[in-house]
Structures are given as structure tokens and as C-alpha cells.
Amino acid sequence: MDVSGLISGAGGFIASAFVVAGYTMRTMIPLRIFGILTNVFLIAYSLPHHHYAIMALHLILLPLNIYRLREMLLLVREVKKSVNSDLSMAWLKPFMTERKCRTGEVLFYKHEKAEEMFYIVNGRFRLVESGIELPTGAIVGELGMLSPSNKRTQTLECIEGGLVLSVTYQKVEELYVQNPEFGFYFLRLVSARLFQNVGRLEAQLAESSAQASS
């Protein structure tokens, strides 16, 4: 076997090893990085051996892998930023779908099964049992995902027509499985929001008690 044949055989073996190793990756960011390296290697390998179909395939896959890697890194960065600043969940917007709501429409009822969370874009929405009106930019329904029974704790009603964005718990779980780092910061963020809500309710109860006493 001549030298060129040995090089070709070794290149094919290495290329196969890259592909097999890619299937062993369990999380998305390492998988995308390895996918990019595989694309680069196979492009470099296929060009001198005139495997133009393989080269064309990986020329398409390379920018796709780069785009998806950037998307996931930006997601993790935004979650970290939210944990350390205003606890906003606006970073979920790219994964959400629009829903228009009419005055008097109920988005969910207390004790019903929870399957999605909502981001309020505009309009007025109120948690019926507590009487709390939610501001624009608020996220509601995220705690149902962490509840053992996945049940709603309050009823959410639209009191002035508006627009919300929704995302299913399944989608959030997919993001968690793809990137455990995202899951860690998401849990920290939801926990911080829970304590924030508890503090707000305690302040409202104290204010109500003070008004009743006076």
C-alpha cells in the first residue's frame, strides 16, 4: 500500500472516530463544540481526496453548529445575568409562543394541572385568590413546574385584553437536559423569585394588618 493510501485510510479512521465520539456526548455545548471540530476535520480531509459530497454536507453543518453553540452560550449567560440582577426571565422569549387574551379570559384555574408558564407582554392580569395584579414583564406559572403535584396554586385572569408569551415545561426541561449549567441557574433563579414573592406577600399582609388596626 502506498503512502497516499495509508494517509487516506488513517484519515477515514479518524473521521469515523470523530463521528462515534460525537454520539457519546450527553450535553449540548460539548456536543456542538465537538461537532464543529468534526466538521472542520472532515472538510479538510474531503477536499484533497475529492469527496465533494461530504465536504458540501459539512460546509452546511459547520455554520449550523456554530449558530446553535452561540445560541446556547447566550442563553446560559442571560440566565446568569438574571440571577445576579433583576431576576428577569425575558431570556426565555425566543422559546415562547404568542397568545392574545381577551378581558375576562381565565388563563388557568387554581388546582388544575400546570403545564406551561407565561410572560406578560401587555394588558392587565390578576391572580384572583390573592388579588395581586401582575405588571408588564412579569413571569407567572413557573413554580408549578417545581411543585410535586404540578398543580396551580391560584387562578390567573385577564382583566384588560393583552398579549402573553407562553412556554411549556417540556421545553424548559429539554433546555435543562441539553445544558445542565442552564438548569442549575434556572433553579437558582426560580428559588430567588419564590423568596421574592413570599417577601411581597408578607409585606402586603403586614400593610393590611396595619390598616385594619388603624
Provide structural commentary.
With 214 residues, the protein is α+β, with helices and mostly antiparallel strands. The protein is 54% helix and 18% strand. It contains five helices and six strands. Strands 1, 2, 3, 4, 5 and 6 form a six-stranded antiparallel β-sheet that branches. β3 and β4 form a beta hairpin. α1 runs antiparallel to α2, α2 runs antiparallel to α3 and α3 packs parallel to α5. The longest helix has 34 residues. The chain is elongated and about 85 Å long.
Features:
alpha+beta; 54% helix; 5 helices; single chain; six-stranded antiparallel β-sheet; 214 residues
**What integer is the average pLDDT?**
76
How far is the first residue's CA from the last residue's CA?
A: 99 Å
Q: What is the total tally of β strands?
A: 6
The SSE string, one letter per element, is: HHHEEEEEEHH
The helix content, as a percent range, equals: 40-55%
- Major sheet description: 6 strands, antiparallel
Number of helices: 5
Class of secondary structure makeup? alpha+beta
Shape: elongated
Summarize the structure.
The chain is 54% helix and 18% strand. It has 214 residues and is of the alpha+beta class.
Secondary-structure map:
Elements lengths: L2 H21 L4 H19 L5 H32 L13 E5 L4 E3 L7 E12 L4 E3 L4 E2 L15 E13 H10 L1 H34 L1
